[in-house]
Write a structure and sequence with these properties.
The protein has about 650 residues and is α/β, with parallel strands linked by helices. Helix content is about 25%, strand content about 25%.
């Protein structure tokens, strides 16, 4: 019985970042193709994906390509053609949101359900498994107990979970606020991140509950402390968010989780890594050094009050000291601790008197005495708002760390054992890697006793062990007793070693198997509901046919079709503003003060001219941001004809 595999799944904005993520320990990479990915500014050519695939497969790592937007009818053929190109390029799986794709003539590529499919229940997860999805990423909002409940129902598909990176405040696939405001659809890969804007929150009497706070902005996900618990709950693929992240961030975070998983696997012989080789890092990974909004493990261990990044959606940085004195064109900083180095090009931050984050790059950092630094900013001193003596200073860009990450920062090698022996007409070299792949080469040469047995044996082992520049690292060398003390020219041994390494790589490539495409259960299983609203994101006739084939009788059009023109839920989220502001009646019970006087439902959000109503569904403990689509969006969209799918029980029943 094969041991279950643990997969570290890293993001790649481009092929070069993907290759470095492999070097730093990723078992799989997800990356966007030329189009139809949910990050429209992170697209890649098929040729670049093929280059990444070739490199990843050397380590038996996998490449998953995102094709996870909703599609119009006129895009389906182009998308179908792209899937075949990706198949021919060697991609291992497609990450999909639009069920219309399942109605097309797709290649035998494995299908993975995107986060945009909004998987929160055992019933939804079981359905997706039964229609042919081999892997699915569960909603970020789930608790360990909810994950366990899904695992109990989903026994064939691999469960995937986000463990690090930015958090969408809404259930993925259930946010339309960007499209309502400016026509940029999150389901089409073009979210404008309205959740990161500052909002003023008022109650039904117009009283201000929060003024210009980023109340929909969350801290970043960090499940570093929960990996073992997530494994026990049934997660097998651990996903890092970040297809817009830069090279340094992907290197750093991938290395961080690789080290955590290596330590976990050391104590869990019942599990194994999902790809080959061991990674050695030339730096100490630290997720706090890259862009982050603070850390939260979100709902994995139940509802927490401190999940919000309400003060700023930016990276505030790590403390480095305080202002000692202010000069005409510089300021001096006392580093804390005193041996903290600063660098030309660092960026420093502080909070002004209004609680807003300020910052400035440093042109020149001059060391003084006893941890004091004289800093010349890239701006006039008069422009540095509220910079003053004794003010705490943080650093959100460390140029020394960035320069270190620009260099080679990891290597990944596969262990091999070598066996040198004799044959009737010469010698044989057998090479076996850590995965059990085997290659053998022979060399014709006479069996001549060496003048110095010790020198000959030492030279033989030295020549055999020269694996630099290959995928492999030496585990051990064995020399058969019959081959000891014989003279063999170094050129013969070197040629045998090079040929054996090439043969082993060929054996690994030949043994590599593409992931199988799971076939749907027949007859078609029923969808858990018989009515679909705009929340189901049905945007084309093939998606409508898919759901009809699975028993759905009423199918409404996607929000992007502009049928839902009145006030509707533009965002559905498990994040609760009233809970985070200590306004929940459960928190207020027995408490005298503001919690007992402010009415928590409904609340109003306002940013500029945009106003939304917050409504609270307390039974599932969810919040709805309610509003309507802007008229300018409708006018601009009128020039783009879109097929819509209204409720049609007769046609689809």
């Amino acid at each position: 019985m094969p041991r279950p595999q643990i997969e570290l799944l890293a993001p790649a904005r481009d092929a070069d970042i993907g290759i470095e993520a492999i070097h730093h320990g990723a078992d799989a990479i997800y990356i966007g193709g030329p189009g139809f990915g949910a990050r429209d500014k992170a697209s890649n050519s098929v040729a670049d994906i093929e280059r990444l695939v070739r490199h990843a497969h050397r380590f038996h790592a996998r490449i998953f390509v995102t094709l996870n937007t909703i599609l119009r009818d006129d895009e389906l053929e182009e998308a179908r053609h792209l899937t075949w190109q990706l198949y021919e390029a060697g991609a291992d799986a497609l990450i999909v949101q639009d069920m219309g794709l399942l109605e097309l003539d797709l290649p035998p590529l494995q299908l993975h359900a995107s986060t945009q499919t909004d998987i929160r229940t055992p019933e939804k997860a079981r359905f997706l498994q039964d229609v042919g999805f081999s892997q699915m990423v569960l909603a970020r909002e789930l608790t360990l107990q909810q994950i366990q409940a899904i695992r109990a129902e989903v026994t064939r598909s691999t469960l995937e979970f986000f463990v690090h990176g930015a958090l969408c405040v809404a259930y993925s696939g259930q946010c339309f606020i960007s499209h309502a405001i400016n026509g940029r659809s999150a389901n089409r890969g073009n979210c404008s991140q309205e959740c990161r804007q500052p909002y003023t929150v008022t109650d039904t009497q117009g009283r201000i509950v929060a003024h210009d706070k980023h109340v929909l902005s969350l801290k970043d996900n960090n499940q570093s402390a929960n990996l073992a618990a997530l494994v026990d709950a049934g997660i097998r693929s651990f996903k890092i968010e970040g297809r817009y992240k830069d090279m340094a961030t992907v290197k750093n975070v991938t290395a961080h989780y690789r080290q955590l998983f290596d330590a976990l696997l050391e104590g869990r012989p019942d599990l194994q890594a999902a790809s080959s080789g061991r990674t050695r890092h030339f730096f100490v990974p630290d997720p706090d050094l890259g862009f982050n909004r603070g850390a939260t493990d979100y709902f994995v261990n139940g509802r927490q009050i401190d999940i919000g990044a309400f003060d700023t959606p930016k990276h505030a940085g790590q403390p480095v000291g305080h202002v000692l004195r202010i000069g005409a064109d510089h300021f001096e900083l006392q580093a804390e601790p005193a041996d903290t180095p600063l660098n030309n090009g660092d960026a420093l931050t502080w909070w002004d008197r209004q609680g807003e984050l300020q910052g400035v790059p440093i042109n020149v950092a001059q060391p003084m005495d006893q941890g004091v630094w004289r800093l010349f900013p890239n701006a006039p001193m008069a422009a540095l708002k509220d910079l003053r003596r004794d003010l705490p200073i943080a650093r959100n860009r460390d140029r020394a760390w960035e320069r270190a990450m620009e260099k080679t920062s990891a290597e990944r090698l596969i262990g091999v054992s070598l066996m040198w022996s004799t044959t009737p007409d010469g010698f044989a070299l057998d090479v076996v890697d850590d995965d059990g792949h085997h290659a053998r080469v022979t060399a014709a040469h006479g069996h001549e006793p060496a003048q110095s047995r010790e020198r000959a044996d030492a030279g033989l082992r030295e020549s055999l062990g020269k694996l630099g520049g290959t995928l492999f690292t030496l585990r051990d060398i064995q020399v058969a007793p019959s081959a000891e003390g014989l003279f063999v020219p170094a050129r013969v041994v070197n040629t045998a070693r090079r040929d054996a390494v090439a043969a082993l790589e060929a054996a690994r490539a030949e043994a590599f198997e593409r992931l199988p495409r799971d076939q749907p259960v027949q007859p078609p299983v029923p969808y858990p509901e018989d009515t679909l609203s705009y929340l189901a994101n049905v945007y084309n006739s093939r998606a409508a046919a898919f759901y009809a084939r699975h028993g759905v009788r009423v199918i409404e059009a996607a929000y992007e079709s502009h049928e839902a023109l009145g006030d509707v839920s533009l965002m559905i989220t498990r994040h609760c503003v009233r809970w985070s502001l200590s306004l929940c009646p459960k928190q207020a019970k027995g408490v005298i003060g503001v919690q007992g006087t402010v009415r928590a439902e409904p609340l109003t959000l306002q940013h500029g001219n945009d106003r939304f109503t917050l409504r609270f569904d307390c039974k599932p403990c969810e919040m709805h941001v309610v509003g309507r689509i802007r008229k300018p969006v409708l006018r601009e969209a009128a020039a783009v004809p879109v097929q819509v799918y209204r409720s049609r029980p007769k046609a689809l029943g």
